[in-house]
Amino acid sequence: MSVFEFRSAQELGRVLDLHAVKYRFFGKSGAILLGYSGTTQDVDLYQEEIERGKDFIQLRNGPFDLDLIFAPDGIERFDDAWKRRVEKHGFPIANIDDIVGSKQAANRVKDRESLPRLLSFREWLRGIK
User: Fold this and answer.
1) What is the Cα–Cα distance from 28 to 31, expressed in whole angstroms?
2) I need a surface site. Which of 25, 59, 83, 119 has the fewest CB within 10 A?
3) Domains of the chain, CATH where assigned
């Protein structure tokens, strides 16, 4: 399994744009594209919700792991989160507040462990605006 890199985002973004998929990079992969200095082994994409089925789909057989997220913790509606997105490097990326809020709402051990650094990063981002 490889680590998420900018090249991964470029490849994935090109395919999604080709098929007119409305998406945002989310989770740590989104934070990394915003400048966060952490690493992740998977790419989290938040896309428009589906009417039935799972909250997310995990794809594990490609050059990197991909999680397609339809109902992230802490986010009520795709359209509201879409309005808060930011564009960076030509990619739609979830707002850092949505990334942090989702980690807080999920409350998994790995999310609680990464939250202090993500919160510090969010404060840094706010300071450079």
Assistant:
1) 5
2) 83
3) 6-127 (3.30.460.40)
